[in-house]
């Protein structure tokens, strides 16, 4: 019960896994042994069947030396939509809440020993 886009993407992913396996000259039997699955499960993975466990996909990527791609899939630093939404939530102006002059000078004198020579304290 998935969308056409999901089915198409899964089929492409399965095809890409199959091509990667073949480029590495791994037989179906060898790949299945390394994944810990049957040849039927591998066939489902390589045809883009949505019922294959996520762990099976992760193991396939591990065996192919590409597991890092799964971990980077939704990296918040590369999430364009999330970054745009974050930027949209930024305030127009930032108003500082100033203390009275006498309170500021007293607190400045009290903290004069807390100078950060590296310039990283706030």
Fold topology:
Elements: H1 4-23, H2 28-35, H3 39-47, H4 54-63, H5 67-71, H6 80-88, H7 101-110
Q: Mind explaining what this structure looks like?
A:
This protein folds into two domains: 4-71, 434 Repressor (Amino-terminal Domain) (Orthogonal Bundle); 76-110, no CATH class. The chain is 58% helix and 0% strand. The protein is built from seven helices and no strands. The mean pLDDT is 86.
What percentage of amino acids are in beta strands?
under 5%
Shape: elongated
Low-confidence stretches: none
Distance between the termini: 53 Å
> How many whole angstroms does the radius of gyration measure?
27 Å
Full CATH superfamily name of the largest domain: lambda repressor-like DNA-binding domains
Summed up:
Helix content is 58%, strand content 0%. The protein has 122 residues and is mostly helical.
């Amino acid at each position: 019960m998935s969308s056409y886009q999901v089915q198409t993407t899964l089929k492409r992913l399965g095809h890409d896994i199959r091509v990667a396996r073949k480029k590495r000259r791994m037989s179906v039997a060898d790949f299945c042994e390394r994944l810990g699955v049957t040849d039927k499960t591998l066939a489902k993975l390589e045809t883009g069947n949505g019922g294959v466990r996520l762990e099976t996909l992760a193991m396939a990527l591990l065996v192919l030396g590409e597991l890092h791609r799964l971990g980077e899939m939704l990296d918040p630093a590369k999430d364009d939509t999330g970054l745009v939404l974050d930027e949209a939530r930024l305030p127009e102006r930032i108003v500082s809440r100033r203390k009275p002059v006498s309170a500021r000078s007293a607190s400045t004198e009290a903290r004069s020993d807390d100078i950060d020579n590296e310039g990283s304290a706030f």
